[in-house]
Amino acid sequence: MEQMKELVEYVLEAAAEHALWQPHDTIVVAVSGGPDSVALLRILHEISRTRMPLHLVCAHVNHGFRAESAAEAELVRGLAEELSLPYELAEFDIPAVMKESGLGPEGTAREKRYEFLIDTAHRYKARAVALAHHADDQAETVLMRLLRGSGLSGLAGMRWKRTEKKVELIRPLLRINKTALVGLCQSEGFAYAEDASNQLAIYQRNAIRLEVLPLLEQHNPRVRQSLLQLAEIAGAEDEYMEANAAKCLDELVLAEHGKYTLERAAFAGVPSALQRRLIKLILNYLSAELSMDFSKVEAVRRRALQEYPTVWTLDLGGGYVCMRQYDSLVFSSKPLIQQVSYTYPLSLAHPRMNLAEIGKVMEMRVLEREGFTVQEEGPGKRSAWFDGGELVLPLTIRSRLPGDTIRVMGLNGSKKVKDIYIDDKIPSSERSAIPLVCDGLGNIIWIPGVRRSNHALVKRHTDTVLLLTLEDMEQGEET
Predict the structure, then answer these.
(1) pTM of the shown model
(2) In CA terms, which of 246, 267, 380, 466 is 20 to 30 Å from 171?
(3) 125-178 pLDDT, tens per residue?
(4) What are phi and psi of 193, to 5 degrees?
(5) CB–CB of 205/164 below 8 Å?
(6) 84-88, long-range: CB within 8 Å, 24+ apart, which pairs?
């Protein structure tokens, strides 16, 4: 009983440190029947009985892999009955499910197991599902991820708790080694099952446990403890870095309509460690299906830091891209390249026109000069003023054509519209949404938000002013 008291204290200490539960919480305990999960259930039952009121539910999954599976299910059922706990059983035909999931046997079994445990937690309105992963499992996990080339997040190993579908998955035994758990079962006479497949080195985790770790222990007998310390340190630092990356996202990134934009200069001013985190965070927001491998993140980061070229597109896979548009970096789905072509007349008889292709509305109004002051015009303006007596009507609103030129105010001769867009650093993906306004002779007189021409300027002797305005089309407005 002394060993039980010691392990109960270890678990209570971890639970308090990581806020694993509160008094009167309902917890679903995943019990396979092995010594680890049997010890977990016994420890939690002892806590609920003598230290803190908890409502426990014993849950078991029969994957049907082995001949012993049915006997293990009965063993766990008997344990639940002995402790007077609710018992939940799930039975799966994993080989049949594999054909649908496309995963291997281990992946399929894990997916179905977690699905059942979380569903059970929802039915019992449980706060958490308790899993029996222990210190040896943690050391193996960290080593596997180290060999795989994982970053700081991976080296943190399994977390004490994480939330999935509004249920917390908790691991109260992460600081207790397997020897102590088996010792508890044996000293107290707790029945448990042995899974013979744990001794087969054909599985990667088993090979790490049976071959790699014993070899490393020849050079460092405390290698398991070192791996656990690495997980603790990496976990704390990973949480700190994630919090800072989230802060950077809030401060530097503009998110709208599934597109994430940030200024390249601001990105360059962030430390490289946070640059990588920020990219990963944006990719995660774009799509949970996007791979986050180091090479992809680093490709984005290095391209973003280069001075030239100032316009490029990098394929991220999964239908997403990162684009540099002069001074901005844009993460979004792949733009659909469409040549939008349209032509609309605008006259005094029909002074308002919906431009359905680009979601805008152009309106022309007649203003008497008396009492009206023409405002300064320039780039970014959505309105333009013209001398009504000099402007040749009707006007035409159309899409851009190759070779278009405009006689710009303050410039002798004409300038290509394309060159103006380049000078103003207007991204190519946004140019098709800018209409051109032409007079009755075909001269381009206004590029809304960009430039106006020197045609029909409003002067002192102007009697009538024509005001052109471009606005966004309101939701539900007829197109």
Answers:
(1) 0.70
(2) 246
(3) 999 999 999 999 999 999 999 998 888 899 999 999 999 999 999 999 999 999
(4) -105, 150
(5) no
(6) 85/41, 85/45, 85/56, 85/57, 85/58, 86/57, 86/58, 86/124, 87/57, 87/58, 87/59, 87/60, 88/28, 88/57, 88/58, 88/59, 88/60, 88/120
